[in-house]
Design brief:
two-stranded antiparallel sheet; Oxidized Rhodanese, domain 1; five-stranded parallel beta sheet
């Protein structure tokens, strides 16, 4: 059983906590372009690939909940598992992530999207590589059929585990990282 299943909150319930003067921490573990495109008001950007729970916990008040969300929940669950591995049980999953928040009609801050969302980049890259591999298999050699087989296997693995190697690789590309440096979004405010 996954340790993240016990602590979760609906987007609507979390939204009610936004009105509280001492609103609990809300950590968004998506990529900078995803965050810039649309994010929950008050969320702090900390991309999953940059998340170091031990460092984050140095500024965290023990016992106070850390609400974590991503686009739909998979990356947030991974982040929660990382916090749990550091001995922190304060992490709470925002069910359904940012997409569920938007679907519920709750307030979001929207920016100008300058980069495609990571999953669209994955779809474009995987589709392109597969199509080229299939075309080469038809024209040049049947050995090129291994390319779409490899890509398809990777997508199957991603669907089954919630971990997409291509998305992780794309998130590290310069066009997906520059926003956090320019906008200074990845810095967590100090707690008093």
């Amino acid at each position: 059983m996954n340790g993240t299943q016990g602590k979760s909150i609906s987007p609507a319930h979390r939204c009610l906590l936004l009105t509280n003067a001492e609103a609990p921490e809300l950590l968004d573990v998506r990529t900078p372009p995803e965050f810039t495109n649309a994010h929950v008001p008050g969320a702090v950007l900390m991309p999953l690939q940059d998340l170091t729970p031990a460092d984050y916990l140095k500024r965290h008040q023990t016992g106070a909940p850390i609400f974590i969300l991503c686009q739909s929940g998979a990356r947030a669950r991974t982040a929660i598992e990382r916090f749990q591995a550091c001995g922190c049980d304060d992490a709470v999953l925002v069910e359904g992530g940012t997409q569920a928040w938007i679907d519920a009609g709750l307030p979001v801050n929207r920016g100008a999207a300058t980069v495609l969302p990571i999953m669209r980049q994955v779809q474009i890259l995987a589709g392109s590589i597969s199509a080229i591999g299939a075309l080469l298999a038809l024209i040049v050699s049947t050995w090129f059929a291994l390319i779409p087989l490899f890509i398809g296997s990777g997508l199957l693995f991603a669907g089954m585990t919630g971990t997409c190697g291509m998305a992780i690789l794309l998130a590290r590309m310069p066009w997906n990282r520059f926003h956090s440096e320019c906008l200074n979004l990845s810095r967590t405010p100090e707690r008093s």
